[in-house]
Amino acid sequence: MSNANNENTVSESTQIDRKHYGPTFPILLGALGAWTLYLSAQLPDFIQRGRQLPGPRYFPTILGIFFCVAAVVELVRYLRQRRNRTVPAPSIRQRAFAVMQDWGSHSVVLILASLIVFVPLIRYVGFIAGGIVFSALVMLRLRAKWYNAIILSVVVVLVIAVVFGMLFRVPLPRGAFGIAL
Amino acid sequence: MDVVVQLLHPSVLVPWMLAMLFGIFAGATPGLTATMATALIVPISYYMSPVAGLAMIIGATFTAIFAGDIPATFLRIPGTPASSAAILDGFEMNRRGKGGFALTLDLLCSSIGGLIGVAILIMVAPPLARIALRFSSAEYFWLGLFGLSMSAVVSKGNTFRGIIAAAFGLLISTVGMDVTTGHPRFTFGQLELLSGVGFIPAMIGLFGLSEVLKLASDPATLNVPSITQSAKISLLGALPAIWRHKITVIRSALIGTFTGSLPGAGADIAAWVAYGVSKKASREPEKFGSGSEEGVIAPTSANNAGLAGAWIPALVFGIPGDAVTAIVVGAMLMYGLRPGPLIFEQSREIVDSIFMIAVVTQILLIGAGLLGIRAFSRILRLPRNAVMVIVLLFSAVGSFALENSFFDIYVMIAFGIIGFYMEKNDVPLPPLILGLILGPMVERNLRVGLVRTHGDFLPFFTRPISAVLAAALFITLFGGPIWNLIKGRLKQP
Amino acid sequence: MSKRVLIVVVVAILLLVMSGIVWARGAPEEEVYPDRTVTIVVPWAAGGGTDRVARFWADEFQRELDTPFVVENRTGGSGAVGHSAGATAAADGYTITMVTFELATLESMGLADLTYADFEYLLQMNEDAAGVIVRSDAPWESLDELLEDIRNNPGQITFSGTAVGGVWDLARVGMLLEAGIDPDDTTWIPSEGAAPAITDLLGGHVDVITNSLPEAQSQLEAGDLRALAVMSDERNPTFPDVPTLKELGIDWSGGTWRGFSVPVGTPDAVKQVLIEAGQRIADSQRFRDFMDDAGFGIRLRLGEDYAEFVEEEHYTWQTIIREVGF
């Protein structure tokens, strides 16, 4: 409990600076804008009866420009806020720690990674076997008791298989071995 | 009277009730939509009487649209696209332990909204359908833009980042084959992207997965049940709230019916427009987005009414107003009925049965809905880590189910990451959904409209309905500030 | 932690081994086709016209061959996704594809690297010719009057019916080229299908649609719309008063069609089973009633005939698409 409190205070002190006007957001936004503009430039014109009309690139180009402008605005906001800061700026280490906290230490990356692995898994061993393994592992990672994890996983996966597979006739993956298990 | 007897016959009543339960299932499960439920019912219904088939379809779709609000309220995952607006205030209410109340309110308003929609369908279907026919590219363009302007309304105070989110949604909506020229855009050679980014996987990722990730990054609450107090359901308790906001209910239902009756717009757009209009018209707009009763009432009244509205062009012209009625029109052909101008004369009994079924469904909906809420809140009594895994599994299977596509599971994961990152950076998510829904409507209609006019933009302002819509948009956007300016000037001297 | 993980890993391995055993037992047996579920890939959405035909056939095949036939909708990219999935499936007869007209245009339109040669053909059951449909209060009494008007007022008359490069658009282009008119003298208004196009026509937002006659049957019967011509070799029995283009002196026919195919390399014995079953279904009264009720035109081509037809279609449409340069 005290550990959790401790973590909270750490994240709070760095959160406001990093969260609202961190430099990554404007940078990402600018990159998105530039990328959009670059890709849109390769789209063809649309000419009908000799007249150029808004074509495939019309909308994406407008959006690309908007993202670039928005990136500048966000950057200015960030810089202005940095100048007016009363507390000392978080160090690189603090910032990295905060990002790790968002993404790493608390299962987020693990959940994402297991989801990504989940797709090939159910393709090869079928939904039921793959689903049970996936769900049990993730539940364990989320601090469930192991017997709970296994029982719940089996029940939930079977329920899903019945609802989707039988009631709604969704062809759930049966695995490379062609069995429903 | 014959109609009533026919409907009460077990060969109609039993499949009808079963279909409503089926609808609850389909609606409450992310990835299973009302359209899918209808597509599954139609082949079964060939072996029954047309009345039984229509009762099943109507029963399943109206319940599914309501049931979509159940996971939206409890878990922030909209069960159907039409309930994406329910994540705004319904979920906020749930966060404050009032999920049961929010859903009761939601259920009753669904039923009332549906009744109003059906009443309009019965009384003025032909003239309303004639108005809907006058809508063309220019009108849909303004309507779409009007919907997009709602993104400022749902930005929870951070308007600039709300607009960024809406623009990002618009950008995503351009992925795929360009309708006007057939040219692929931003597909990177992926066949799966030719038809665009799937709306349902994106929605499940943005809201469902990102919420799980958010919970996962906060380990302190993992082993506790998701709802501590039982989801209290009291129909009577919700009535005073509805009476307080009766104008909101009626206004939203009217907006919903009309939007639904347009062949180019559906219940999903209806819900957002009703939400935005209600906030603008509300005496306490600041409460919207933080669990306001009106914020729950408006979208749900509108989406069920919109479903009824979609039947208007379907019956009057044989032109479906949404994906569900598209299937219905096909099914009616199979029953030997030809929806269209002649159906009111040639098959009057069937039309009367449809009306009767639609009315009774709205009332039965309350029972089926209560059952659905009860059943769903049981899942939430499990420890939170179990709920999270269930959500993950349903998110993955639900994304897969719509197109039987593994690619869509990756789309869902990608949007989960995007949603998580955006919320960490205080970028509101609802505008992104708005951009995604309305992007095609705005872009296609602008460009197709310009093809029609050979590049001339003037008709966008001079066509009568178009001009009214443009003016309405201008007033909602700038009316408030200008009025304040004028008032300020008058007071100064 | 490690203990829990260990248990799960053990369970996982057990499950894998079990599935392996079942698989190993099932594989070496001599197969009598079909002995398990057959999937019908449909490149269009559930509930649409193609889907309805496919589901009817799935039921009938199931009855004929006593094996489950299930429909799998793989939508997207103007049919590119579903057709590709069907062509690349295992060539064992357990995945058959409902191919539609779009197969003949996917390559030329630059949507997918896929042609008629990527399939082997079982049978075609449907063909719907394009029509030329106008509002009943339109000034043109005949197709000639319409074409004359286009010649005299290039760029004024708008057509609609589907997306750019879709079947009804290409049918329009073919008709105009054959009549000696530059297709660019009319404007194509893209729509997302028949329903919005009919709405547009009824609302007066376009002048002509080239959808099939059954698609507009309600409005044609009610007298809101009028058909000037149909782009088929023979008149449509439901609309005996509508002349064909050939009768009007324009040598052009075009429209959409549907049929079943299997991936290249499917054993002949398997194809034979499916073709024979298909023929029995196509001969049944139930099939005819189904197609009539749903408003689909019946056109039967079997095996080789069908294969030749699709090849011919490929080159017809390729020429048209190159001509206008989509």
Extract low-pLDDT stretches of chain A: 1-19
- The ordered string of helix (H) and strand (E) elements of chain B is HHHHHHHHHEEHHHHHHHHHHHHH
What count of helical segments of chain A does DSSP give? 7
- Taking Cα atoms only, what radius of gyration of chain B do you get, to the nearest Å? 22 Å
Averaged pLDDT of chain A: 78
- Main beta-sheet annotation of chain B: 2 strands, antiparallel
From the N-terminal CA to the C-terminal CA of chain A, the straight-line distance is: 43 Å
Describe this structure in words.
The complex is a heterotrimer of chains A (about 180), B (about 500) and C (about 325). By secondary structure, chain A is mostly helical. Chain A has helices spanning about 1-20, 25-40, 60-85, 90-105, 110-125, 125-140, 145-165, and strands at about 45-50, 50. Chain A folds into two domains: about 1-90; about 110-165, no CATH class. Chain A contains seven helices and two strands. In chain A, helix 1 crosses helix 4, helix 2 (about 25-40) runs antiparallel to helix 3 and helix 6 (about 125-140) runs antiparallel to helix 7. The longest helix of chain B is centred in the N-terminal third of the chain and has 35 residues, at about 100-135. Chain B is globular. Chain C has helices at about 1-25, 50-65, 80-85, 145-150, 165-180, 195-200, 215-220, 270-285, 285-295, 305-325, and strands spanning about 40, 70-75, 95-100, 120-130, 130-135, 155-160, 185-190, 210, 225-230, 255-265, 300. Chain C starts with a helix and ends with a helix. In chain C, helix 2 crosses helix 8 (about 270-285). The radius of gyration of chain C is 23 Å and the shape is elongated. Chain C is built from ten helices and eleven strands. Chain C is α/β, with parallel strands linked by helices. The interface between A and C is medium-sized, with 20 and 22 residues.
